[in-house]
Design brief:
This protein folds into 4 domains: about 170 residues, no CATH class; about 150 residues, 3-Layer(aba) Sandwich (Glutaredoxin); about 50 residues, no CATH class; about 50 residues. It starts with a helix and ends with a helix. The protein is built from 12 helices and 8 strands. Strands 6-5-4-7-8 form a 5-stranded mixed β-sheet, sandwiched between helices. The protein has a 3-stranded antiparallel β-sheet with strand order 2-1-3, with no helix packed on it. Helix 2 packs across helix 3. By secondary structure, it is of the alpha/beta class. The protein is elongated, with a radius of gyration of 26 Å. Its main location: membrane. InterPro entries: Methylamine_util_MauE. Keywords: Membrane, Transmembrane, Transmembrane helix.
């Protein structure tokens, strides 16, 4: 066996494994974000509305789990021939997709690393070409990969990995993503994140408003929007970049009073106190099973003098439907649907602001309960920004997943070594008897 060849194959294998593990994990812990990206692809090929959202969500979980699992199996050299071939097929498909993105540019961000790392389509294609070449090399000489676990015990690592990544996705789906890579993280001051340094070149946007009247859709811009004509019903917005410039972390956050057409963003962000934001990108499909919790929080806010508003991109009909279903009395204002989906991965979700700073976020499944709303926010944990627990989460993942795998590898190597010693002793005894 050529040592340089073996080293080269294992370098390619490590490059593939690390990329797949990172890429699969950051997408797996944000299944709704991955679903939104898949929806962008579906729209780009002209199939909008054909594939149900629940299928896209299921695909996002499965594809992320597949990528993560392939990475772990390659890192540990499990089922070397099969995994190498599957990786080659996977990279061939992904490289073809990113070539289309680089040429046609139907989507500005491929989403290959979720919200953790953003690459241009050209950068993504170049990255995939390198990974495809690495996959070809590993598939050519799969048996040169150094194995960490013997064949007998490989099934333990495979099943443990699959269970772990699906559990991580389901946890993030039920609550919120384990790690938040988006600009609307807890501790972020929205207004400061929207500021542009003096003298910096500004990005020029073109915003298109889509409105409906008597079943007919029409597009408007900022200059001809029918603010005074209430017969036009706002439906959606679309934003295009005309010229790139300095782009602050948050550049697309705005709150509009649909009745008056006034921009009330600064009014909300400059409020000297606490503000609850009920985030519901689409009220028509929002989960209304926990509306009693939302109503309780609203009444709590009223009693204590806190602001409580709803943000949605839904039409007047959608808002009325929600009010009829839940009896909601709080006002709703308009915000871009994509922005709302970025703020919190839940429909609806709840965000607590203090003077424009995000103090906390909750999904519809874990909103503050009655026992947590017994005192003013300033006197409770809810009203204080939680300590940064990123390292705690990393430690839990290490203890819950990485450490057991390491212990499995050590136990497997010790078991293999003792087997070798027994065979060696038997061989020596046989030679002595002869």
């Amino acid at each position: 066996m050529s040592i340089p060849k073996s080293v080269f194959v294992n370098i390619c294998r490590a490059l593939l494994a690390i990329t797949f593990i990172f890429s699969g994990f950051v997408k797996a812990i944000d299944p709704m974000g991955t679903q939104y990206k898949l929806d962008d692809y579906v729209k780009a090929v002209g199939m909008a509305g054909i594939i149900p959202e629940w299928i896209l969500l299921m695909l996002s979980v499965i594809l992320s789990a597949l990528e993560f699992t392939l990475g772990v199996l390659m890192l540990m050299a499990i089922r070397r021939r099969l995994v190498s071939r599957l990786t080659l097929v996977f990279m061939t498909v992904m490289t073809a997709v990113t070539l289309w993105l680089a040429v046609a540019n139907p989507i500005q961000d491929c989403g290959c690393f979720g919200d953790a790392i953003h690459l241009t389509n050209a950068q993504t294609f170049a990255k995939n070409v390198v990974l495809l070449l690495s996959a070809c090399i590993v598939a050519k000489w799969p048996l040169l990969q150094h194995r960490f676990i013997s064949k007998t015990n490989q099934w333990i690592a495979v099943n443990f990995t699959i269970i772990f990544i699906f559990a991580a996705s389901l946890f993030s789906l039920y609550y919120l993503p384990i790690f938040d890579f988006r600009p609307y993280y807890i501790g972020q001051n929205i207004q400061k994140a929207m500021e542009i340094p003096p003298g910096a070149k500004r990005t020029k946007y073109k915003t298109t408003f889509i409105c409906v009247k008597n079943g007919v859709e029409r597009e408007f811009d900022e200059n001809n929007y029918p603010y005074n004509d209430t017969t036009w019903v706002f439906k959606d917005t679309r934003q295009e970049i005309l010229e790139h410039g300095y782009e602050p972390p948050i550049h697309d956050f705005s709150i509009t009073d649909e009745k008056t057409g006034a921009d009330i963003t600064r009014q909300i962000l400059n409020w000297k106190g606490y503000t609850f934001l009920l985030i519901a990108p689409l009220l028509e499909i929002a989960d209304d099973s926990n509306f009693a919790d939302i109503e309780r929080i609203y009444q709590y806010a009223k009693i204590n003098g806190y602001s409580f508003i709803g943000l949605t991109s839904s039409t007047y009909c959608g808002r009325n439907r929600w009010r009829e279903l839940t009896g909601a009395e709080y006002p709703f204002y308009t915000t871009d649907g994509t922005t709302l989906k970025t703020i919190v991965r839940s429909n609806p979700g709840l965000v607590l602001l203090y003077q424009g700073t995000i103090i906390n976020k909750w999904s519809t499944n874990n909103m503050p309960g009655e026992k947590q709303l017994t005192a003013p926010l300033a006197l409770t944990e809810l009203g204080r920004e939680p300590s940064n627990n990123t390292w705690t989460k990393i430690l839990l993942i290490v203890l819950g997943y990485v450490l057991p795998l390491v212990l499995l590898i050590i136990a497997d190597r010790l078991w293999a070594w003792t087997r070798w010693l027994r065979k060696r002793e038997q061989q020596v005894m046989k030679e002595e008897n002869e």
